[in-house]
Amino acid sequence: MQKQDQDVIREFLVESHENLSRLDQDLVELEKHPKNAELLASIFRTIHTIKGTCGFLGFTTLEAITHQAETLLSQMRDGQRELTPSLTTLILATVDATRTVLAAIEATGEEGSETFAGLTERLRVASSKTHEEIPVEFRQEEEATKVSAAADANIRVGVGLLDKLMDLVGELVLTRNQILQFNTEREDPALNATAQRMNLITTELQEGVMKTRMQPIGMIWSKLPRVVRDISVGLGKQIRLEMDGTETELDRTIIEAIKDPLIHLVRNACDHGVETPETRTRAGKAATGTVTLRAYHEGGQVNIEICDDGAGFDLARLRQIAVEKRLLRPEQAEKLSDRETMNLIFLPGFSTAKVVTNISGRGVGMDVVKSHIEKIGGIVDLASRPGEGCSVKLRIPLTLAIIPGLVVASGNRGPEPGVGERFVIPQVSLVELIRLEGPSGRAQIESIHGTPVYRRRGSLLPITYLNDVLDLGNSNDNNVINIVVLQAEDRQFGLVVDSISDTQEIVVKPLGKQLKGLNIYSGATIMGDGCVALILDVLGIGQRSGVLSESREQARGALEQKIQAGIEQQRLLLFRAGSFERLAVPLSLVARLEEFPLSMIERAGGSMVVQYRDRILPLLTLSSLLDAGVANGSQTADPAQVIVFNDGNHGLGVVVDQIIDVAEEAVTVRQKTDRKGLLGSAVVGANIADFLDLNFVIRAAAGDWFEESGGQAARKNVLVADSSAFSRGLIRSGLDMAGYRVTEAANLDEAIRGLEGQPVDVVVASMDLPPSGSASLVAALRARTSWERIPVLALAETLRQIEERGAEAAMFQDWQVKSDHKAMLESVARLAAALAVEEKSYAGAGS
Amino acid sequence: MANENRMNGSGQFATFYVGDLFFGVDVLNVQEVLCFQQMTRVPQAPGVIEGLINLRGQIVTAIDMRGRLRLPARAAETKPMNMVVRTVDGAVSLLVDEIGDVLDVDQAAYDRPPENLAPTARDLICGVYKLKSRLLLILDAERTADLAVGIAA
What we know:
By secondary structure, chain A is of the alpha+beta class. Helices cover 43% and strands 26% of the residues of chain A.
């Protein structure tokens, strides 16, 4: 407390000295222009500020003097009296007296013995006798001319200048690193000495400049006790404010940016979070609620938590409000997960307060808080336990800073063959380094059900390999295992890298927005040799590798995702219809999922339709199509669940009984069926799902789909060559929908027969086409002049397959991953269009 | 139309080649042109991001134009050139096959891109100039740098 008071007094002194210097000038100016209202107002404000602070700090003498001067000035400001030279002198005397007292405070911390009773009295008399001249005795005070040491020791510097300095120091550090690198290569004693000296100076300069910008977060927290007190009195609540980590230092710009959001969050915690004493007592809690502020550094970021021990979020009420405010439809609100529901409060115009108070509840707030925090690259996280309170966590990254980092290398895809790529790990996340050598060392990494762990001083440390997480390839040297033990949030894990070089001061540079989505990097830096190195985001690496995810299931899912390149397009929509419990279609073929109340569904021309986005969307009930002939016992749910397929010109809505899920799991076992309307079955995740034959559905729904389908594409013939009937079916579904005429072929011979049978515009071939791959099909095509220009789109099982067979891939006009239907369709469209153009130009050249 | 507004530039285009396509970017948007630069690969990044370049202390993302336009990859032994363009989010380097001249073009030769252009290209090309010998495609650098365009489902 003592220390804090001193800080406050010091600030008061500096500020007052500045104000007084200006006051001198203002007063002299005022004598020349006595009617200048602006000047008068400014003088009044200055005196008023000093008076206010004095009262707060308990400096009674100064308060008495300034109070009287303020009264006098307010009369002048209100036009009750005019400024006379004697009045000016009186006010100047007040200024001098104020200086004397301030000097005493600076020297001893107290006001000193002099009470300035005479001056106070004269001021009082002057303000009471409005129109008389007041005789003034002139007294020059010696101390007045003495300029304060406190004012001298501080100057105000623009933040812009500090920012510029910081940037320059950053560049200097990089240059220093490069020179040090030269130095180790040269072995020149003179250069060595200079480089060392430069190294030291740069480090000191850097520390100095960093310090100029750092401020403890307590600076802005000090305002909060008052805020909380006022709110609790205003709302009749009892709230205690606790602060932890007031000394946590933050960059000045960040402090400024989080000031308002922080105050808002504390207000919210008091207003919405903590309940009234009666409610609390009824719930068996202490009548006094607690709001806790916590600040700490973690993983190169600063975390600020605002927690309350109130009732937590009322999720049902949040959903209800969202519906009332017409932000969501009731059926949408029902489906929100708890987390999504909490995030509703970030919507503009969303307020849960039942009564609009002057504290909060006007619906401007959390959205602004969020945008402020995100503007400085931070994240707002919400957590809530019903009945126990909720917490808001701000994670604020170091946007620009020089940080110490550990340089590591891993993999074999570096700039030179066989050399690893370099990465930097922020030192803050580093716990320790472990080196295991030889076969006995390798044996120390044990495995639990495929998950590597290491016994570190009696506890198990989960292990992950950087080479796997980032897919860096494997190094040749397997003799040594380097484990970098990292701390992320409250957990630790070991990251195995191939080699560890050294620690360096690095300048964090932000990544372009193209890479913003990658949470595994927190930025990049420039190394001593001028090359760019990526800075690893420890939390992101932990999450991506699965060592930090919520449950083991998710961890495995993430790993599998990583292995299956292009998984994004492999997502399957699972749904139920009629007697089929689990049906699947590739999500990439689905335009939208919709719900239509049965009242909206109309009948036109014998079929069901619904008005949808200014068009008429034909609907088809899947259960009656698939279970044809079976009595349709199941009643269509209200609202009807509809999967909308769309090719740009046409739409088709398929009514199903229930949308189950979107599965991200890889499809493992496949089997063709002969049943109409189904392509086959496959194991998706742990269960069997039937794949819907969209081709069949479309034909059943609208015979005119193909005839009317969009101009050009309608007349194109596509040959699909793939050994798997299942794959062909899936590919065909997409092409059918886009209006192509499709011929299927299971192997090379069939493909050639297909080509002979009719003109083909585009060939889509699996890279694994029997008997010897799609390359042989290309060779066959190129051998005949009439087929020479038919473009070939190769389909690979995974991205890895393409990488492995790069040379072969160059033969094709284009290639795609098999599971990426959307990209495949785009490719076909482009190849078909390109061919058409080419033919035209040939025709033109001939004429 | 937005596309046509973008045409109100200097009328001068820095040109380059990608595959057999001939592109131009408004010279006012071009920061510089560089020969092949050493790059740092970004593992797990979208495929069209070839790497990061140190451009005098500024870290610049390099985007492979062949990948961006979904053209076949260039042969391993040929090194791409860097066309560094300014975008609202900072400089971005476009990796192209070859750099051409700066051309003055006649506004009258402008045409909208054909409707049947492949979607991947249609998103990135904001106009066509019918030059005497060939077609000059005007690249929308802003959209090219925004990987959400043309790739998102």
